Amino acid sequence: MVNIRVAAQTDLPFLHENDSHIAAEELASVVERGRILIAEHNDAPIGWLRWGLFWDEIPFMNMLTVLPSDRGQGTGRSLVEYWETDMHRAGYSSVLTSTLADESAQNFYRAMGYADAGVLLLPGESSEIFLRRELETTPDPHLARQ
User: Fold this and answer.
1) pLDDT confidence of residue 137
2) Number of domains in the chain
3) Is the entire prediction scored with pTM above 0.85?
4) pLDDT, tens digit (0-9, with 9 covering 90-100), for 44-75
5) Residue 144 has pLDDT above 50, yes or no
6) What's the domain range around 86?
7) Contacts of 137 (CB under 8 A, 6+ apart)
8) Is the pLDDT reported for residue 14 higher than 90?
9) Contact at 8 Å (CB) between 92 and 135?
10) pLDDT at 143 over 50
11) CATH number, domain containing residue 93
């Protein structure tokens, strides 16, 4: 069974080793702000989801990764669903992510209900596809009692 939790400073060595897309100082800052989720199995990290805010107001999933040996078991889906639930509870009505046009991740996101929202074209690179998902607007009955 996979456990999902907010990353702690003790996760920095694992994240530094496996996430080369972010500078060390920024990674520590993102962990401090609670914007990385860790998936773990038997108390060992096997994946993570890193997010920020697009235009300072829309939750944007910057990175979703599951270690190669643990892929295909629903961990990525669990991380995304956990994050979406957190974003809904925080009052957000939609979330965004992106992937390169030549990556298969776009199929994963579309299967989870994400819809194309636009494309960024940069010279010499594959197109970056932006995807958006509207979050459930039905109030969570558990939150109404709090």
Assistant:
1) 59
2) 1
3) yes
4) 999 999 999 999 999 999 999 999 999 999 99
5) no
6) 2-144
7) 93
8) yes
9) yes
10) no
11) 3.40.630.30
For the record, the structure tokens of 56 come out as 């300072």
Residues 6+ apart with CB under 8 A from 7: 15, 31, 34, 36, 37, 38, 48
Phi, psi of 65 (to 5 degrees): -140, 135
Edge-to-edge strands of the sheet including 115-120? 2-6, 36-41, 44-54, 58-66, 94-100, 128-134, 115-120
Per-residue model confidence as pLDDT tens digits over 93-102 = 999 999 999 9
3-state secondary structure of 63: strand
Would you call 64 helix, strand, or coil by DSSP? strand
User: Measuring CA to CA, which residue among 137, 143, 80, 139 is closest to residue 108?
Assistant: 80
Task: From residue 123, give the alpha-carbon distance in Å to each of 21, 62, 104, 120, 128.
Answer: 20, 21, 21, 10, 11
